[in-house]
Amino acid sequence: MRAVFGIDVSKASSEVAVFVNQNKIHAYTIPNDGVGFSRLLDDLNSVQKPEIIFEATGVYSRRLQAFLEDHNFAYT
C-alpha cells in the first residue's frame, strides 16, 4: 500500500490531502500548531512508510519541517 500525504502550507493553516494507491481518501485543514500537528501525526502513524510531499514556503513551512524531523518522518 502506498500512502501519500500532500500538504499545502500557508501562514496559519495547512491543507492535507491523503492518497492511498493513487486514490484520494480524504482531505482536511489543520492549524499550524500542536493541535493540528497532532491530528496529522495520528494519520501518519496509521500507515507504514508514508510519503510526505509539500512545497518549502520559507518561514511558513519551517514549523512543519521541524515537526516531521522531530518525529523521524522523511519528506520531499
UniProtKB/TrEMBL annotation:
Residues 5-74 form the Transposase IS110-like N-terminal domain. GO terms for molecular function: DNA binding; transposase activity. One of its GO terms (biological process) is DNA transposition. This is Transposase. It comes from Streptococcus danieliae. The lineage of its organism: Bacteria, Bacillati, Bacillota, Bacilli, Lactobacillales.
